[in-house]
């Protein structure tokens, strides 16, 4: 029997899911989308209680997937800003649909 990657490695749905898998990636994309450009510390504050290590890892993976652009300014203290790439912006309709779905289906307290 072939392994999972052999069977699904060329599947567009699997590719999409692997690019945005994880607890925080969709929320990160949503916050960056809403802000257009956001500094690391502001993003971390919005995503509290996310750990620094987790946020850093998720941002690096989103950058490697070409969905997030990282701009570093050589200043003291260091300044880093994040924005969606053109490829990342193609996920905006999905983000908006997910938000709308959640708004309609979230359980009432």
From TrEMBL:
<keyword id="KW-0238">DNA-binding</keyword>
<dbReference type="Pfam" id="PF01638">
    <property type="entry name" value="HxlR"/>
</dbReference>
<dbReference type="InterPro" id="IPR036388">
    <property type="entry name" value="WH-like_DNA-bd_sf"/>
</dbReference>
<protein>
    <submittedName>
        <fullName>HxlR family transcriptional regulator</fullName>
    </submittedName>
</protein>
<keyword id="KW-0804">Transcription</keyword>
<keyword id="KW-0805">Transcription regulation</keyword>
<dbReference type="InterPro" id="IPR002577">
    <property type="entry name" value="HTH_HxlR"/>
</dbReference>
<dbReference type="InterPro" id="IPR036390">
    <property type="entry name" value="WH_DNA-bd_sf"/>
</dbReference>
<feature type="domain" description="HTH hxlR-type">
    <location>
        <begin position="11"/>
        <end position="109"/>
    </location>
</feature>
<dbReference type="GO" id="GO:0003677">
    <property type="term" value="F:DNA binding"/>
</dbReference>
């Amino acid at each position: 029997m072939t392994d999972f990657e052999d069977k699904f490695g060329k599947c567009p749905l699997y590719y999409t899911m692997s690019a945005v898998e994880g607890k925080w990636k969709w929320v990160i994309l949503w916050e960056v989308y809403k802000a257009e450009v956001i500094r690391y510390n502001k993003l971390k504050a919005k995503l509290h209680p996310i750990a620094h290590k987790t946020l850093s890892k998720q941002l690096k993976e989103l950058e490697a997937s070409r969905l997030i652009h990282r701009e570093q300014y050589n200043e003291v203290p260091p300044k880093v800003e994040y924005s969606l790439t053109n490829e990342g912006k193609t996920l905006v309709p999905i983000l908006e649909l997910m938000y709308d779905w959640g708004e309609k289906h979230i359980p009432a307290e």
